[in-house]
Amino acid sequence: MNIPFWEDSYKDDSVSAFGIKPNDTLKEFQHLFDKSGSVLDVGCGDGKNSLYLAGLGYTNVEAFDLSENAIKKLHKLAVSENLHINAWQQDLTQFVFNKNYDLVMSFGTLHFVEKKYWKDFILKAKSHTNDNGIHIMQLFTNVLPASPDIAPFAVGLADDEEIKELYSDWEILQFKSYTFEDEHPGVPKHYHASNKIVAQKK
């Protein structure tokens, strides 16, 4: 059974699989968010983006990830920083919305489930987003083959600009199609092709 590289990082408090700084796009658009709004961090990993928002005073931050080790690490980090985040272990394909959100964000996660599942998730997330709510979604595309470190798990690579079509009825504040160099603890440098979208419900 293949085990993704990030599981070892989640078990080790001395390293971070994906860095400790919040995503630049989150910081760029945070002026549009209300600190009392409801936030959902999808595929949160060990929580760098959720921890960032909670540290700024956001009071309704929820986060989930498939990895139990990631959630354990997030909880430890939150306690160490005296922050409250409602985080739990969850399979994206089985997530059920029972409330509306003002911000739904997902960075580098959706392509790890089959395309039909991430498309369905986005459609449901849109219908459970409050007016003027924001989505920030970033996923890998098939412009480049999946790198060896994620190839066994990247079962839902998007076509370029495919995610943009799902937000045709929202205001698209930013869309980027790009490639970037990446590296992780114990993994050689490699490249990914990605789409990132920031959209607002009007």
From TrEMBL:
The keyword Magnesium does not apply. Its EC number is 2.1.1.-. It comes from Eisenbergiella tayi. Pfam families: TehB. It is an enzyme of class 2 (transferase). PANTHER family: METHYLTRANSFERASE, UBIQUINONE BIOSYNTHESIS O-METHYLTRANSFERASE, MITOCHONDRIAL. InterPro entries: SAM-dependent_MTases_sf (IPR029063), TehB-like_dom (IPR015985). Residues 35-176 form the Tellurite resistance methyltransferase TehB-like domain. GO terms for molecular function: methyltransferase activity. Keywords: Methyltransferase, S-adenosyl-L-methionine, Transferase. This is Putative S-adenosyl-L-methionine-dependent methyltransferase TehB. It comes from the Bacteria. SUPFAM superfamilies: S-adenosyl-L-methionine-dependent methyltransferases. One of its GO terms (biological process) is methylation.
